[in-house]
Design goal:
By secondary structure, this protein is mainly beta. Helix content is 10%, strand content 54%.
């Protein structure tokens, strides 16, 4: 499939094998910036729309002004089960993978000094501590493809990388002796390309002989999560204006393993198969600050707004790659890259939220949110001990600004009440972050929920179903007309969450 017919921005898709072992690229910037559906089961049941709602333990992670509405202290915990399905389709062949995970996406404690009716204009303070899962990274994607006899494959990719970088047999020999540090070095060590000299005596690399169709397959396994702990406070002025702020501490743990395989069955050539393995793990911590306001001009309507500063991360990454090849008659080769470790910084964009909620007396409410995020403003930076001149990430940051754009996220939800029972439904759209891609990168989420409210206890359950589409190429060539396997990936995530809480 020709790349220039699919994506007009050259990298507006999930990246395949990079030229280095480091994984810092525009895909990573988006991974840590784009959040999933968050909050308690009550909030997830209404599509996450809570900017103007207030008085829910989830408010600390979105609009801490909602703390000013609490009149009692509260504790809640929310276990949940996630069912992930990924479909990879290439040239009419579809492969489906499933992965399930159990966890606690949300827990919170609120301590309110306010008891009874207000005694003055300011009603004291409410403090809270919450844990929120921002992203669940657990996922498995695979696909299968058959490359035609004239189609370049990953062996040609290795060869092109060696030629484009001006590699010589001498420096690849040094990698062989001292330890491999590149993909083309691994390919050289496993005899996947040959070296000849042109008329000027320059080393030129040619792929090993192969004939006919090449069977390809790849499996990508991702694990981990991104979580936020918020320390928040809020207050109220005349029960009309509510103010709040929270400090967010984000922890992230992401691990990815990839296994790419090619095989050929033609007996006229010695090549039989190859397997490329890649594994990296990234762990980091970030900080942000949120401030918010809710205005209640009447008992019927509320307006809310909040802003979140950029999140400032420090990441540490470990990585390793290995390549194995087999040739007739039973020759096997295997080489491993030197394991590495790398530290860097990431700054994610500023976020702004606005919302409105309409209350239908005792029968329920309707609420809607809009969120603004400019994904193009994410940027990588060197760690304090990097020792460089500050320009290492210039090309990556340029690609981020060229690939991404600002986006609007919409959330809409409603709750109906009948005595102590609650019934909820919601819908959310996470806007398309890609600037020029010829596919829709938005995420659509449908939610349902129900609950029970007693004097001191409550329980809620929610179901959320999200669908996202993306494109993935395991490798690309300098010639945009080169035929590569471009995989259509559909990720579907269904989550069931239960929240139980106690008021005191």
């Amino acid at each position: 499939m020709k790349m220039n017919k699919i994506v007009s921005a050259s990298l507006a898709l999930m990246l395949g094998w990079g030229g280095t072992a480091f994984a810092q690229n525009e895909v990573d910037a988006l991974r840590y910036t784009r959040y999933g559906l968050t909050g308690s089961a009550r909030i997830q049941g209404i599509g996450g729309a809570q900017t103007a709602l207030g008085a829910d333990v989830s408010t600390m992670a979105s609009n801490p002004a909602g703390l000013g509405m609490f009149r009692r202290s509260e504790f809640s915990i929310s276990p949940g089960m996630t069912f992930s399905t990924s479909k990879g389709s290439v040239f009419g062949t579809t492969t489906t993978d499933e992965r399930n995970s159990l966890g606690i996406p949300h827990a919170a404690f609120v301590f309110s000094e306010r008891q009874g009716e207000p005694q003055g204009d300011w009603t004291g303070a409410t403090f809270g501590l919450s844990f929120t899962r921002l992203n669940n990274f657990n996922n498995r994607t695979s696909y299968r493809n058959t490359a035609g006899g004239q189609d370049p494959t990953i062996v040609e990719y290795f060869t092109e990388q060696a030629n484009l970088r001006g590699r010589t047999k001498a420096d690849l020999d040094r990698e062989f002796d001292d330890g491999f540090t590149s993909l083309e070095g691994l390919a050289f060590g496993t005899y996947l390309f040959d070296v000849v000299q042109d008329a000027n005596g320059k080393d030129v690399f040619l792929p090993t002989d192969r004939v006919g169709n090449i069977n390809q397959s790849e499996e990508i396994i991702r694990r981990g999560s991104q979580n936020q702990i918020d320390i928040a406070g809020g207050t109220s002025y005349k029960d009309k204006v509510y103010l709040g702020a929270s400090l967010g501490v984000i922890t992230s743990d992401f691990r990815q393993e990839r296994f790419f395989r090619e095989s050929e069955e033609n007996p006229d050539t010695d090549f039989t198969s190859l397997e490329l393995r890649d594994e990296f793990r990234t762990r980091g911590t970030g900080l942000n600050l949120k401030v918010g306001i809710i205005v209640k001009p009447s008992d019927i309507v509320r307006f809310g707004a909040s802003i979140q500063t950029p999140t400032f991360y420090n990441f540490n990454e470990t990585f390793e790659r290995s390549l194995y090849s087999t040739f007739l008659p039973g020759e096997n080769y295997g080489e491993q890259e030197l394991p590495g470790e790398f530290s860097y910084k990431l700054t994610t964009p500023f976020r702004a939220n606005g919302g409105v909620a309409f209350f239908l007396q005792k029968y329920g409410f309707i609420t809607a949110d809009i969120e603004y995020v400019n994904y193009a403003n994410a940027s990588f930076g060197e760690s304090d001990d990097f020792g460089g001149n500050g320009s290492y990430f210039n090309d990556v940051n340029d690609r981020i600004s060229d690939t991404y754009q600002s986006a609007l996220n919409f959330r809409l939800g409603a709750e109906a009440r009948y005595e102590v029972f609650r019934f909820r439904a919601g819908y959310a759209i996470t806007g398309d972050p890609y600037k020029n891609a010829d596919f829709d990168g938005s995420i659509h989420t449908f939610t349902l929920g129900t609950g029970l409210r007693l004097n001191k206890y409550y329980a809620d359950i929610a179901f959320a179903s999200s669908t996202a589409n993306s494109l993935y190429a395991p490798y690309t060539f300098s010639d945009p007309a080169a035929v590569v396997p471009l995989v259509d990936v559909e990720d579907k995530q269904n989550t069931v969450m239960l929240t139980v809480g106690y008021n005191f």
